[in-house]
Amino acid sequence: EDQVTQSPEALRLQEGESSSLNCSYTVSGLRGLFWYRQDPGKGPEFLFTLYSAGEEKEKERLKATLTKKESFLHITAPKPEDSATYLCAVHEDSNYQLIWGAGTKLIIKP
Amino acid sequence: DVKVTQSSRYLVKRTGEKVFLECVQDMDHENMFWYRQDPGLGLRLIYFSYDVKMKEKGDIPEGYSVSREKKERFSLILESASTNQTSMYLCASSNPGQGGRETQYFGPGTRLLVL
Question: Phi-psi bin for B100: left (phi > 0), alpha (psi -120 to 50), beta?
Fold first, then answer.
């Protein structure tokens, strides 16, 4: 069965403490992997799309990487404003729908 | 910038009422989507549309219908609202990219409470 699993469910870090969020997936063929950021009570905000293993993308303190089985969202020296839920979704070759992970809630303490 | 707007941020309705949620996108996108998001269940696709007057069922279409009369507008209709339809409703739009690659852009969401 195709699925997307995000870990950990929640992550608490001190300001400046770097870490990584994981998104592992099992699909027959990957068309694209998406990362979104969602603030409480708001819609998801698009961050990155990755298409093939080895690809990397960066935006400010965030860097997304992709292998054949998983993606990591690395956050370097985070600030309190990086606190949010980070969602991962996969677009599979044979399916019109995105398969969504449950998200990782990131809390950055000052 | 892609802009997706939803008609209401918060909505309170009574059981049995007919409810309309409106979504408008300004980027001439072909595809539009309606999701609901509930704690612990993540995002679930209700319906999507890949063209005007076209619609496809998602994972949880029961109790909902949709309408797309114009390219930029996609409406979600709850024919007879029930308490189990209390949720956050999210609209998204996208354009088919090369090789089927596309990114969905979301609206701010409508938090619906059915009493």
Answer: left
